[in-house]
Each structure stands twice: as C-alpha cells, then as structure tokens.
Amino acid sequence: MKTYLKLVHMEIYRFRFILLGLMALTAVVQLLGMQMSLTKSLNDVYRRMSAEGISLSEYAASYSKLSFGSIHSFNENLMTFPIMTCIVVLSLYIFFIWYREWFGKSSFVYRLLMLPHPRFTLYLSKFTAIMIFVFSLVALQVVLIALQMAMYRIRIPIELREYNTLIQTIGMWKAVIFVPVRLQEFFLVYGIGTVFVLMLFTTVLLERCYRFKGLIAGLTYTVGTVILIVWIMMMAERGGYFFYPSEFLIASIVFMLFNAALSLWLGRWLLRKKVTV
Amino acid sequence: MKRYAFSIGLVTCTAVIMAAFVIAAFADRVPPYELVTKKGSAEVLKGFALEAGIVRISNDGQAEWQDKGALFNQYSDLVANNDHYLERNELIVQHRSFIRGHLYSDSFYKDNKNVISASVNSKPFVIQIRILEQTNGNVREIEIPYETEDSTVTGPNGPGVRVEDVQSAAGNLHFLVSEIHTPYSGNKGRKAIYYDYIVDYNSGKLIERIEVYRSPEQVEPYTETSVSLISEESEFKASSLVMFHIKTIYRQDQKDSEEGLAQTENSVAKLKERRIMGYDYATGSTWELPRQGIELIGTGLEPKLHGGKLYAYYAENPQAAVYFIDPLSGKQTANRLVLEPTEYRGSRNIMLADGLIYVSWRDRRVPKVAVYDAATQAILYRGEIEGTDSRADLDRLWKLIFTNNGK
Amino acid sequence: MIEISDIRKKFRRKHVLNGVSFKVEKGQITSLIGLNGAGKSTILKAIMGLTPVDGGSIRIAGQPITHDIYHTVAFIPDRLTMPGSMKLRDGLQFMADFYPRWNPERAEDLMSFFRLERSERIGRLSKGTAAKFNLVLGMAQDVDYVLMDEPFSGIDMFSRELIAEVFTSQLVEDRGVLITTHEIRDVEHLIDRAVLLMEGHVIKDFNCEEMREAEGKSVIDVMREVYRP
C-alpha cells in the first residue's frame, strides 16, 4: 500500500507543472470570458435603455431578464476551449505516462520494473494518477462555475437576475457532460472514461510487449469496443428494436465492466510475464 | 510528509470539492414544487402527470426532474410506473413482453379482453397485427396485404401508409389505414385515402375494406385540400366513431408561381370550405356534420373526440370555453363550460380523458389545475402548485401540460 | 544459486539464445563472455525479468522469477535507470523509499569513494560518473546477487581502476556476481568463472583458476581458441 501511494505521488509530482498550467489556462480563459460576456450583455441592456429612454425597472418589466445561462453561453466556445485542451493533453498523457519511462537518455523503466513490489502496483498507480488529474480538473470546473455565478451576482443588477442553484446552472450548461449532476449519469460518463483509460493502458503494454502487432491488436480492441458501444447506444436511441433501451444500457454497462476486468487482467499479465525493455 | 504536500493537497482539495458537489446535487435532487389539493381528491389525476419544462409533478403531489439525467433520457424506457410520458408506458409495464420490439407500432387498442397493436410494414406493404388475449395470454399475429394505388409523385419508398386507429366494433376488428401520397413540391398528385379494414376477430381474415374518405382531385390552381383526423383522445380507448376535419384552402403566392402552394411568407391563405365528416365503425356509415356545428368550430375552435362525443375549444386564448357538440346533429348538447381566464396566451392546457376535462392554467402567477366532469360540468378537483423552498420560482412553470398525449 | 536452464530467445527470426545453461554461485564472480550481439545483455535482462524468454527456465535459489527476486538480486545495466531531471540525492532517496534492503550507510561510503556530488543532476553526468552512480545504486543494496552489464564500457582508465577496486573489496566477497564485459583484460584477474557464448549457446564454461593450473591457459587464451580457430 505504501509503495502504491509513493508511486502515485511520484506520478502526480512529475506532472505537476502541466496540471497547474492546464488549471491556470482554464481559470483564466473562463473567468475572463465571463467578464467579457457580462460587460457585453450589460452594455446591450444599457444601450437599449438609453435608446428607449426607460429606466432599469421598466426595462426589466418589458424585456426578458439576463439569465446566467444566456450570458455564459455568449462566449461558449471560449469556455469550452480550455476543456478541450485539457482533454487533449490528458489523452496524450495516457500514452506518455508509460512511454516516457522508455524514451530518453535514461531508461527509468528498468528501475520501475525492478522494484521489489508487484508490478501491477505500477499499473494501478499510473491509472490512479490519471484519474486524480481528471477529477481535479472537474473539481476546478465546479469551482469556476461557482466563481462565475458570483461574478454574475456582483455585476448584474438584481432586477435583471434570474436565480438558479449551482446544480441547476451546471445542469443547463452545454458542457454538462463533463460535470454530470445526476448520480447515474456521473457514473456512466466517468465509468466509460475509466474503462477507456484502462483499455488504452493495455494497448500501450501490448505495444511494448509485441511491438507493432501488439499496437494493432490493442487499437483494434479499443476502437472495436468504442464502435460496439456507440452502435448499441444508437440502437437504444432509435428504439423499435426487440430490446428495450434500458436493456441496451444494461448490456453496455455489463460489457464495459467485462472490458475493464479484461484490461486489468491482461495489463497485469503483460507486465509480469511479457514486458520487455 | 512535507515531501508529499503537493499530492496530498491536490487530492484533498479535489475530494472536498467533489464532496461538496455531491452534497449540493443531493440537495437539489427534487424540484422545489408540489401540487397541493384545494378541493376534491387527487385520485382523479391518477395515471397522469403535469409537466412544465423539466419539472414533472405526479398525482401524489411529488415533483421530480424530468430530465432524468438529460444525457441519457432515451434509456429510461419508462418501466417505472410513475413515468407517464406516454400512455404506452402503461402497456409496457403491464405487457412488457408483448410490447417488446413493437414499442413504436402505429396504433394500439386495449380493452378488458384484448391488447392489439398494429403497424404497416412497407415494401411490401403489409398490415401487421398482433393480438394479446388477456384471458389466456395467447398472442396472435395476423398479416393482411395492402396494395397501394399507383401514383407518379411519391418518394422512393412509396406513399406513407399508416394504421391511424384500431377499434373493435360489432365483434370485428377495425383498422383505419391512411395512405398519403405527397409530392416533393407543389400540389400535383397530392392524395389522401382512408380505408377501414374490417377483420374477423376469430379467423383473422379480412372481411371487407371500406373506403372511408378520399381526397378530391386537386384541379384548381393554388387550392389544397387538407384532411386531419379527429380520433379518440385516449389512444387506446374504444370509440365507435372517428371524424375527418377537411379544409379546402386557397393559397396564392404573391409571386404568382405556377407550382402552387409555395409556402412563402407572402402566401395569402384563404379558407374556401370546411367540412367535418364522421364515420361509424359499427355501421360503416358516413355523415356530414351539419352547418351549425361547422360554424361553431369555424369561430376558431379545435374539435376533439372523446367517448363518442365531440368537444371544441381553443386552449391558447386567455379567455376560453369548452363547447359540447353532438357529432351527428352538430347541435350543442349543453351550455358551454367557461374556463377561468389564464394569465397569458398559451399558458393553458386542456386534456380529455375518462370522461373528464382536465385544465391547467395560470392565475396571477400561480399555476392551477381543475378537473371537470364532462357530463355534469361539476368541478371534481382543484389544485395549485406551491413552492417548497427558496429555490422555487413559480414564474418558471409557465405552462403545465398533462402528459397523456398518446400518439 | 542462480540457475539458467536451456533458455531460448528469438528476436526477429534470429535465435539469439538457443539453449543456454549455466549457474551463478554465491561467493563467485562469473563472467559472461561473447562477441557483440551474442546475447549477453539479453541473458542478464532475462534473469531480471526485464525481457521474456521463449523457452527454458531461470531459477534463483530454487524459485522462479517473481517481483520478490528484486530483494535478493540487483542489476546494474549499462545505462542510467533514473530520470535525468532527478538529482543524485533524489535518486538515492528513491532507492531508500522503495527498496527495503537499501543500505544508506554503504551508499554514503560509495558516494564518497567515487567522489560523487549529490546536487548534480543525473542527466548531466558524464559517462564515467554515470557508471559510478549506477554502481552505487546497485551495490548499496543488501542483496545476494549482483548482475553487471558492461561495467567498464566507455569508461576512462582511472574510473575503471576505481570500479575494479570495488570488485576486490568485501562488497563482492560473499555475493554472487555475474558480469558481462568486453574488457576481459580488466577483470581477468578478478573473475572466478568464465562462460563463453557463441551462436546462442554456451561453448565453454570453466573455472579460471583450474584452467590456469590444469592447462596453463588464461581466459584470453581460451577465448582465442574458441573465437579465432
């Protein structure tokens, strides 16, 4: 257990600058974007007010209020750009977290594989690190939304405000898929993500053990699973099939669990028996 | 320990924030609204729910978020009993295996003895009927071939053929089938035919095919005949009759195009003629709704059929009333039922079910519900939506819709 | 005892190891000798579980290879095994963190002996210094066996002398040591056994002392016989 924790710490520590960089990027872009949207929306209101010569309360009576959602989605792409960046960087790091041990002047992989501890601890620690990175960014996003809501409350006069709780606000956001507010959704989204990470890990190990053939096998397995899941989901969405949508969903979940188990088992076996430096 | 400060800090902050998030989500899991009964028993609402945006309130007064996880709405196949989005839910719950794979059949019918679903398969056109005999659980499948008329104007799959209604009358099964030919553009060749396929219940054989309605040839320029079906409001309930609302519209584009019926913003539409035709399944006879009925409906009302009676109302107006019309004579069978005014246009919803009239509207920013007995016009139920805590904003519930909207 | 029995390994259609068998005993220094590409490094990696073998078996003290062997066997490869961004002291800390049998005092001694600077970055070390640090990492573990892959390759003469000194110290006395090397001249006087490899199997396996007494040949003499007939 202590070995596992120390390895997780090592992985987090190595990535800290990139992680902090991603966090800073997201915070700056989203908060600045919010600021810009607020200014623009308020300017529009004031302009209309002066054009029609009405006061704030008159405006509020005749026109619709400024909801958080409308202001927030004004610069929608700006808000989601850092999220996409984070996803890209983390996706690449799923591979790089392994490959960095092999490449470079020194081969840290020798040392890691020769630790007097089960090698699977290595696999789990890298996996844990990735999941911690993901959830730390999700947590950051929650905080940023809360901060944006605070900015909204500060700058928008009360006559124009529409009240929503934090959860409702997130729930109405276009990018809610990354911060699902319902329990089943959360598990589903991040469950699928987790299985995906595991499959990619095993793909990397397959490549390291069997080189090109391994890479093809791993990618086929991963891509094939994704296609299968998407196909099942599409059938569920279209409906009219013999199975009810909820049954398709259960089938998908069972399949993903099976894949997770397979990836873990295979990864462990590859690390123990077949990996080569 | 100081060495691990960064990792510990990161994990702790993440955990704390996520825990707070989970707690907040948990606190928000029920919408802050409830239905409060002011008069009568909420039993009349059993089987229905009220929807306003993403809030759904069921008859026990409890509210729930309708999005059910907006991302995965489609996977809730309505197995839960209290999900009243479609009347078909009840069927799924009660007859899960019978409905399996046939959830989206064209039309259903249900009474004490049978559950029937019907659909049309295209290419080749075949009416597929499945009958579940409730007494012994037998499932029968009947196939009746359907030949479409020749037509030069329809799309690659042929005309649209659909079972519009399933009824049981005089010991036989009746399937009202529509065959619609729609040209890609313009009006030439537009055709709508309605047949009643009468099937013997025991043998499953086609007894007779009656042509109930055929749209007239579109000869005059810029003139279109549109027909909409007025069938029983409760999809599965029995109805001895069905009606056709036939409108002849003259529509000329300002640009005087020869295609006719160019639906541009400059179109001028004029109603040339309105007919309402009735068809009785048991006798096979048709009749025209007499002029007084037509005129009444022509004042801007929408006709609805329920329990063999004809109702007419226009729910959108702030002031509205429900009219009761005899489908054969066109005369009003009772005084109109004047409804309470609603706060603004479009915020009223009316539903007819089980011989009752369900109305929802807004009264000075409070969403209200009333249920009337259609025969006596007595008010059986009154209810109001109230907020349960500070999150509530009744202005958001600007229209409550009864969810039992069938097809 | 490390027992290598009939191991085979194919690498891209070529049989690098074609049935190699020999033993490494405690208290002895064994040297694997062979031409370039003979598979010497591969054998060491195979013993350490760093590469799989296609056939045969490897047993350490009678046990097959699991992660537990890293308590008793240390490997000093011909390259650095720590990230270049780490400082030397971080590397030592890493070993202390993860190796229960890490001996910090001996590490101290060796660091002083080799005159290594703790605050230096691993990535910046010269080849000779890197080799010395590698030795520290390997020798400061309280293990029964030490494997070394080309400990002298590319090292300057003085560093070689230092490294060779380590061999004669008690560090090595009661352990089993397996080295591979080209520079047989540097270690000929140190090693106890010589295992000659050719074409994927063991051509000759002998005790150096006995060979000298019995046939009056040095290791190099035997090598000449075998590789340049």
Question: What does this molecule look like?
Answer:
The complex is a heterotrimer of chains A (277), B (407) and C (229). In chain A, α1 (2-52) runs parallel beside α6, α6 crosses α8 (183-238) and α8 crosses α9. Helix content of chain A is 81%, strand content 0%. Chain A folds into 2 domains: 1-179, no CATH class; 182-277, no CATH class. The model of chain A has no long low-confidence stretch (mean pLDDT 90). The two termini of chain A are 26 Å apart. Chain A contains 9 helices and no strands. Chain A has 277 residues and is mostly helical. Chain B has 407 residues and is mainly β. Chain B folds into 2 domains: 30-69 and 298-407, no CATH class; 95-288, no CATH class. Chain B is 10% helix and 42% strand. Chain B has a 5-stranded antiparallel beta sheet, with no helix packed on it. Residues 78-82 of chain B have low confidence and may be disordered. Chain C has 229 residues and is α/β, with parallel strands linked by helices. Chain C has one domain: Rossmann fold. Helix content of chain C is 35%, strand content 26%. Chain C contains 9 helices and 9 strands. In chain C, α3 (104-114) runs antiparallel to α4 (127-139). Chain C starts with a strand and ends with a helix.
Oligomer: heterotrimer
Q: In CATH, what is the homologous superfamily of chain C?
A: P-loop containing nucleotide triphosphate hydrolases
Q: What gap, in angstroms, lies between the N and C termini of chain C?
A: 33 Å
Biggest sheet architecture of chain A: none
The helix content of chain A is over 70%
Give helix and strand order of chain A, one letter per element, not per position: HHHHHHHHH
Tally of DSSP β-strands of chain A: 0
Whole-number tally of structural domains of chain A: 2
Structural class of chain A: mainly alpha
Number of helices of chain C: 9
Radius of gyration of chain C: 18 Å
Q: Any idea of the CATH class of chain C? A: Alpha Beta
**Rg of chain A (C-alpha, Å):** 24 Å
Average pLDDT of chain A: 90
The tally of domains of chain C stands at 1
Strand order of the largest sheet of chain C: 5-6-7-3-8-9
- Approximately how much beta-strand content do the residues of chain C carry? 25-35%
Question: DSSP helix count of chain A?
Answer: 9
| Low-confidence runs of chain A | none
Choose one word for the global shape of chain C.
globular
Remind me, CATH topology of chain C?
Answer: Rossmann fold
